[in-house]
Amino acid sequence: MKAFLSLARLYLQSFYNLPAKKAPGARRDPKAVLKTVGIAALVVFVLGEFGFIFVMLNLGMYEGLAAAGMQGMLILNAVVIATMMTLVVGFMTALSTYYVNDMELQLLSMPIAPRAMFGAKFLSVYASEALFSLFFMGIAMAIFGVKEGPGPLFYLWGVAAALLLPLPPLAAAYIVQIPLMSVARFLKNKRVIVTLGGVLGLVFALGFNVYYQRMMVKLGDPAALAAMVGGADSMVARIGSAYPPAAFAWRAMSEPASGRAVLSMLGLIGSCVALPALALLLLSGAYVRSLVGFNEAHVKKLTRAGADAFIARRIRAGSPFAGLVAREINMMNREPMYLLNGPFVVVLMPAIIGVMLAVQKDAFLSDPDMAGVLAMLGSGQGAAIAGLVGAFMGTSTSIACTALSRDAKALPFIKSLPVSPRAYMLAKLCHALVFAAFGVVVGVGLMAFVLRLGVVDALAAAAAALALSILLNLAALWLDTANPRLSWDNPIAAMKQNPNSVIAILGCMGLLVGAGFLVFKFSMGTGELALWFGALPFAASAALLGPYLRFAERRVSALEP
Amino acid sequence: MIELRGISKTYAKSAVKAVEDLSLTVKDGEIFGFLGPNGAGKTTTIKMLTGVLRPDSGSASVDGIDIAADPLEAKRRIGYVTDNPELFARLKAAEYLNFVGDVYGVDSGTRRARVAEYAGLFGIRDALGGSIGSFSHGMKQKLIVTASLLPDPQNWVLDEPMVGLDPKAAFALKEVMRTRASAGKTVFFSTHVMEVAERLCDRLAIISKGRIVFVGTLAELKSSRGADGSLESLFLELVDDGEGAGA
């Protein structure tokens, strides 16, 4: 039991990057406090954003269902959504944490019982799933509670159900993954599972986007929303009747003070605990065995003649600066976590926007507010829209704002080479701008196609997008040069847990919204757009480049990684 | 030639000096061993010498060029083997070698000849097309050693170079050290392996708690201690003395 608890604590700290316990009497670092406050604010912001969406959805749904006297279905919907969400997110989390890092190999050498190892991993993944479930259920419970006043037992059963519901989906995820990892050798590679998890995440994000857009379309029509949920053939109704934990949870919460509720809760506990217990009992050994040989690397060997030919063909001199830029590109694009959250965004974002437009097209075009916007697009401001979208795409890759942080491990070696900090940071800027240009082409190209822009408008939009991208990428690089995240164990931390990427993306969005406001406020035409959002940012970038490089020279020289 | 003059270093989050008023001169044609227990300040000293860290005071120069005043020129004269071979895991071995070659401005012909020579010597010739991430610790170490020799540096600085090397590669490394010193080049390396230091070094320095406690030849060390023991026993005595003085 002691090993299980220690291991669970270790996994929890490692998965969620929890801070270590402070030594008694240790001083609080103001920077760390500020960071904690910033992260807390971000969590509140993100939760608030999602919370708002789900509150609105649940409110609309409640109104529609209440009109038909079926408001209890709101709870069944929350139960089903919590189950589905934890199934998808749990599957991805279980996959991405299946083999955390080489620490797992060390654990294999320790006298830890397989059940303690698997149990600790299960518990650590479950922690986030339980919070997810509480979030979805909590919103529906709050709305139902305010509207119907169901009594304290409703909340008690609700919280218990929220905590129990993620258990079977998570157990199912492991029941699929453990045999797969045991037989499919190619899966036993951290890079492969991170890539797979990332692709599944993207598919899930697109799927969630479709669901969200479809729900948003129906938000103004509670009856339609309620029909989607409450219809006899609806997914919610079908899952609710066919999936015992959902049915038990719904029954318990529908009549919380009855004896039937207690029986349903017992049924819920039994049905939710059975699968994890079986997995723990039957699969712990297989889980531990599947970790053996994980991440084993095989070096590709050349024959003697092949090595000679290889050296003659592949070892050749090039420009030092091109070498620095190539290193930046290879180091980022070959790390799945960086690629999927960085340059790949340029491909993903249009896909999400495409889904949004495809699902909402009719509602979007028939919205009375859109008439004015469409008129403006027709009067030459389509170029501005395309330019701003292109600028956003060119800045959304997070390359510049994490450039130095991602290189933290290599920094001591780089500093020992005869490479000036100027050239080093300029190579990073070049890397960001290569993908900024790609983002601009994709963003402006798509918008030009959708808005049917002429060649002159499209070129003006591209010029503005490129100039804004250069300026924003330079600003983002400056931010990461001034305050890089140099201490991390997992590359994910350098990018996804880096406040610079959040600041850069939010700052970029704010600036582009401000620019959009100015475009429409002053009814800027194509020429004005090219001047104010093309020439001006370009001139600003040119003026800032020198001071930035001087700053980078001092800053990189002073960094002690 | 390598010269360290009164360099000191205290890390930002520590009150203790990692290196204190350290001075050393390593002459051309010399193999110089830098010995000390864990945490004595060996790597910090090497990092200051190679420009990775800035000393709080004092100066470091190679071939008479101050690394703070003209870092690029000084670094061009150093081939550095870091103590941490976990670098650039996403690059292929050949890409890494080309990167180092480009940065030092080594032309294609010379580069091919040196890659063929050193990669062959250290037994990684057949793995040049492989990804560094798939290499064992020893292979990564061999790759870093090969890369450090690409520019044929006047000053070869190695931090714990024997760690992870198999006996054949360790032997080859010692041979290369001797060959370079015979050609008038400087070899400066840190090690924990007393036998290596004893057999290889022309001179050595022992550092304890950030301070040099001895600089000279092994014979000088023996005569200064009035003992005829092995380097290991003399090292332990000196380090014990240093720790006693520091306590």
Provide a quick synopsis of the model.
Chain A has helices spanning 2-16, 30-67, 73-96, 103-108, 114-148, 152-164, 167-183, 190-217, 222-230, 235-242, 244-254, 259-291, 304-314, 320-333, 336-341, 345-366, 368-395, 403-406, 411-416, 421-450, 455-482, 491-495, 499-521, 526-558. Chain A is globular. Helices cover 80% and strands 0% of the residues of chain A.
Can you describe what's shown?
The complex is a heterodimer of chains A (561) and B (247). In chain A, 80% of the residues lie in helices and 0% in strands. Chain A has helices at 2-16, 30-67, 73-96, 103-108, 114-148, 152-164, 167-183, 190-217, 222-230, 235-242, 244-254, 259-291, 304-314, 320-333, 336-341, 345-366, 368-395, 403-406, 411-416, 421-450, 455-482, 491-495, 499-521, 526-558. In chain A, helix 14 crosses helix 20. The longest helix of chain A has 38 residues, at 30-67. The two termini of chain A are 39 Å apart. In chain B, the strands form two sheets. A six-stranded mixed sheet of chain B has the order 6-7-8-3-9-10, sandwiched between helices. Chain B has a four-stranded antiparallel sheet with strand order 2-1-4-5. In chain B, strand 9 and strand 10 (211-216) form a beta hairpin. In chain B, helix 3 (93-104) packs parallel to helix 5 and helix 4 (108-121) runs antiparallel to helix 5. The radius of gyration of chain B is 18 Å and the shape is globular. Chains A and B meet through helix 13, helix 14 and helix 19 of A and helix 2, helix 3 and helix 4 of B.
Give the biggest sheet of chain A: none
Helix content of chain A: over 70%
Mean pLDDT of chain A, to the nearest integer, reads: 86
Number of strands of chain A: 0
Task: List the main descriptive attributes of the protein structure presented here.
heterodimer, A: 561 residues, mainly alpha, 24 helices, 0% strand, globular, B: 247 residues, alpha/beta, six-stranded mixed beta sheet, four-stranded antiparallel beta sheet, 9 helices
